[in-house]
Amino acid sequence: MKTVLFAIVTVLLLPQAAPPALDYEFFKQRVQPVFLDKRPGHARCYSCHQGTSATSYLQTLSPGTATWSDEQSRKNFEAIRRYVVPGHPEQSRLLLHPLAVDAGGDDFHGGGRQFASRQTPEWKTIAAWIRGETLRGDTPGDPGKARIVQTNSAGDSVTLIDPSTNTVVGEIKNIEANHGAAAAPDGSRLYVTNEAESRLDVVDAATLKIIGHVPLSGHPNNVSISKNGARVYVAIAQAPGAVDVVDTASLTRAKSIPIDGAGHNTFVTPDGTFVIAGSVAGRSLTVIDQPTETVAWSIKFDTGVRPMAFDTRPDGSTSRIFVQLSDFHGFAIVDFATHKETGRVTLPDVPGATRGLNIQGSPSHGIGIAPDRKTLWVNSKWYHYVAAYSMPDLKLLGIVPVGRYPDWLTFSPDSAHVYVACAGANAVSVIDVKTRKEIAKIPVGEAPKRNMTAMLQ
Q: 279, 267 in Cβ contact below 8 A?
């Protein structure tokens, strides 16, 4: 008996672990979008809980905005804390009240059963926040998942592929004529250009739901993002040509930077110092200083400027740009320091093969350097292959046949595989880098073009 009493007293006297802090940035970027999300058959949480009534804990959105300002978000954060038991999602009213009864929820919720189970992605996102997860990865939580983000230019959804299994594991719906995609550095969001509506759609990476729309100055094409995630750069593919700059905190278009001709693609250099825009109609490449968002220099070509890849020095700064051009089966080499073209590399012909006819002015479209910087890969739309070159000497290593009309490519984070979007095959071809052989074809949507690799939450 004395032993039992001693054990009880010992437990009571042991210091109890402090509850985890609730992370504001995780709340702002991952939890808040849940309250604005429209789930099928349900009113949004925002519809009932915004304003000043007794049941309100959300600030009223300012007219014309798709999300809250930082000041409003902090007020939301403080108000919602009273419905949460830090460290204990299963005891938090914020999660129990809208949860289905058979999943352990309250017997009635005036807003309906927003969450059918504890496996509902939105429920799990809020639970992770309550357990103390942050966007910095310094508390237990999902460290991020590598995903190949494949847009489908003639479809209405974006396909997500797991490179560890080469299977489709997710879909972002209701973005018609989606073209380019960029990911927030913390993996919380995806930004996708919507050509049908001339806007940038903002997607929560945890739920794959659209959480905002940013109207653009014109028809968009491809997109890139700054290294700190604060700015998204959208190529505007209509005259007179511009790069729209979207502020990701307010989800508004902050400015438009004029370029020479309708924009085709934008890229941020690997060191984050410059934004590069190319124009087909303007036959130009424009280099924008990222910190000041002003044009630094530009270069003209004899034909239109299309996709690019960036070679780097040991310190990470840009040394060369490999530029694909209209009506040229290969790529040009631009010396970044001198702003001059220094040569061109022509892709090999395939003896006896018939050239593809529907190349849209680009015999070669899609180029990239593997993350380990050892190889350069270049698409041939003429002959439906991908060519591999060694880096930095640009020696041809071989060609790999893929699906029809390869349009873009990206890599697995470990440089083991190349993922080639084949617009004419409605599939992504997967190439093993070591053996230079196609090892899989992954069916996706209609006319897949731009793709990219992201680490998502």
A: no
